[in-house]
Amino acid sequence: MRKMLQRGIVAGGLLLFGGESQATAASTCSDCEEQTAIVYRDGKGITPIAELWRGWGGQWERQYELARVPLLVDGAVWELTSRPVDVPWLDCSCVSEAARRDDYDADARCTKTRTIDWPVAVGPLPGQELSLAAKPSDCGGEGGSYAPQLTYLGIFDGLVALSARGSSNGCGAHAIEWVTFEATGLPAGGQKQLWDEREGARIAEAGQQTAVAKFIEQYDERSAEEINALRLVPMDLRAMSARWNEGYLQPALLLSRDACFACSNGLWTSYTEAVWVTAEAPLPARLAPYAMLAPALRPLAALVPDAVGFALLPEATLPPELLAPAPSGRQRRESAPRE
């Protein structure tokens, strides 16, 4: 993939990754002016972590975590934040009690709502607000209601990719795990496919050998027939997570295959097993503009391998309130790199 990129893919304004480190790194730049960047990391919450970094003479140093999460889109300032939404859930204790009374209209009476925070992007124009993921249709199970989990997987200029996951069994015998992978384009909004069927098949094929080895390592009590099926039956590309290798975008790939309920591993849905892999695979066309980092930002890749995006800030770009540091307690949050 790297040779292909060197033959002519040129990146635009790019986003990369951040870390909690106070370290610095040298680049080939010997006389650079001061530069400022925002680094985005997944904080396992409704919004990502945004950190302010400054660079001098080709070296970068982390300043602090920002209280808010600004995002530059075509020169306009957006903010990644959240809004409360009401999500339905089925109260299983209510259903059980209704069943004892032979009440067959229990679902309607036992469906309740829970208010959860949900990610949105707020634009520079009054009333400009876009949801970053489809609202869950259910957030309940035998144990009651729950808040879905969010993971930010990539921030590329005006393209924000995240994964939402949860489970529900509808008060039945088996829990149904659901996972979504959604990429929202700003400023137009709406969830966008990062790859078409043909691109997804090519990317999955490139990573299948690595996925097979991981599947066997994780569960080695497989029959020869099962191992043969692992190698021969095509897998599906389910998600991508931003990663950079020596300045080139090489996303981690979530590949899945059909599996029984009891042998699934919950990384994608209840009846599949899935694994994250890194492989030399072609990029989908939608990510081609981000194939290569700008030279000034390449030193950050080695410093902050767990980040999901970054933006190089022109001078006097953001309002001062969006550059305010987070409270000191929040700045101790850390996001461990995913395997």
Indicate the low-confidence ranges by residue numbers.
1-31, 334-339
| Spatial arrangement of strands, main beta sheet | 4-5-6-7
Given helix and strand content, the structural type is alpha+beta
Radius of gyration: 22 Å
Largest sheet: 4 strands, antiparallel
Average predicted local confidence, pLDDT: 83
Could you state the order of secondary-structure elements as H and E?
HEEEEEHHEEEEEEEEHHEEEEEHE
Query: Which percent range describes the beta-strand content?
Result: 35-45%
Q: What is the helical fraction, as a range of percent?
A: 10-25%
Query: What best-fitting shape do the alpha-carbon axes yield?
Result: globular
Report the strand count: 19
In DSSP terms, counting alpha (H) and pi (I) runs of 4 or more, how many helices?
6
State the distance separating the first and last CA atoms.
22 Å
